[in-house]
C-alpha cells in the first residue's frame, strides 16, 4: 500500500461549520471525479498498528485539473478527536492519503442524472458537476437536490441552475420537502440516481426510489461493490 504524504496548501471556510482543505498533489497521485480516499493525520502509522482514530474515509471535492486535492468536511463544536486535530491544522502541516478509488464516476449513457445528497455530501458531487460542465457528452441533463437544515448551502457558485448547461441545482432545508422532490424526480423512470449521505439517508432514499419503480441498477452509491447488497437488496414486500 502506497502512502502519499502531502501538505495543506490552503484552508477555505465554506461556512461556519464546513472547511475545505486544499492539498498539494503528490507526484504519482491520481484520481477521477467521484473519488474517495483515506485521509490520515500525522502519527497514524507511528506505532506497531495504525491508529484508525486518526484516519477518515473522505471524498475528494476537486478535479485533477484544479491542481489541488480538496477535502471538504463538517467540523462541529463538539467533535471527534480526529476533527478536533484537523480543526487546528494550518497551512504547511502534513497529512497522508492512501487507498484512493472512485465508486461513483459520471455515467455517460444518454440519460438524465440525478444527484441526491445531504449536507456536506454535496462535496462528492462537486467534481461530477464540473466534469459535466467540461464535457457534457452522453449526459442528457443533471439535476442536483441537496437537503441541509443549516441553510448554509455549499458550493452555490457551481451549484446554480443553468438552462444553457441543462443543469438544475435545488436546495431544501427539511427532509419532508426533500423526499417530496425525490418522488417528483423519480417520475423519470430511466434516470440514473446517485445518492451520498449517511447510511440511514441512503436507505431512506432507496426506499422512496424503489417505491416509485426505480430499479437497483439505476442507483449509484459511494460504497464498495461488496457493500451494495446491504443497501440495494431492499425487500419492498416487507
Automatic annotation (TrEMBL):
Source taxon at top rank: Bacteria
InterPro entries hit by this protein: FNR_nucleotide-bd, Riboflavin_synthase-like_b-brl
Protein name (record): Ferredoxin--NADP+ reductase
Amino acid at each position: 500500500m502506497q502512502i502519499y504524504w502531502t501538505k495543506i496548501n490552503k484552508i477555505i471556510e465554506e461556512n461556519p461549520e464546513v472547511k475545505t482543505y486544499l492539498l498539494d498533489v503528490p507526484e504519482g497521485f491520481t484520481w477521477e471525479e467521484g473519488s474517495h480516499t483515506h485521509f490520515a493525520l500525522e502519527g497514524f502509522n507511528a506505532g506497531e498498528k495504525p491508529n484508525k482514530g486518526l484516519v477518515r474515509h473522505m471524498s475528494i471535492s476537486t478535479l485533477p485539473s484544479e491542481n489541488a486535492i480538496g477535502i471538504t468536511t463538517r467540523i462541529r463544536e463538539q467533535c471527534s478527536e480526529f476533527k478536533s486535530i484537523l480543526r487546528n491544522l494550518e497551512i504547511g502541516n502534513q497529512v497522508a492519503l492512501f487507498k484512493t478509488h472512485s465508486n461513483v464516476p459520471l455515467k455517460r449513457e444518454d440519460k438524465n442524472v440525478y444527484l441526491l445528497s445531504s449536507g456536506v455530501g454535496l462535496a462528492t458531487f462537486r467534481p461530477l458537476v464540473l466534469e459535466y460542465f467540461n464535457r457534457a457528452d452522453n449526459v442528457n441533463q443533471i439535476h442536483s437536490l441537496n437537503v441541509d437544515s443549516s441553510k448554509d448551502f455549499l458550493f452555490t457558485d457551481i451549484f446554480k441552475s443553468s438552462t444553457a448547461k441543462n443543469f438544475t441545482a435545488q436546495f431544501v432545508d427539511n427532509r419532508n420537502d426533500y423526499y417530496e422532490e425525490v418522488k417528483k424526480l423519480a417520475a423519470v423512470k430511466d434516470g440514473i440516481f446517485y445518492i451520498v449521505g449517511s447510511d440511514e439517508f441512503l436507505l431512506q432514499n432507496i426506499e422512496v426510489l424503489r417505491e416509485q419503480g426505480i430499479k437497483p441498477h439505476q442507483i449509484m452509491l459511494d460504497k464498495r461493490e461488496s457493500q451494495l447488497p446491504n443497501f440495494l437488496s431492499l425487500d419492498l414486500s416487507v
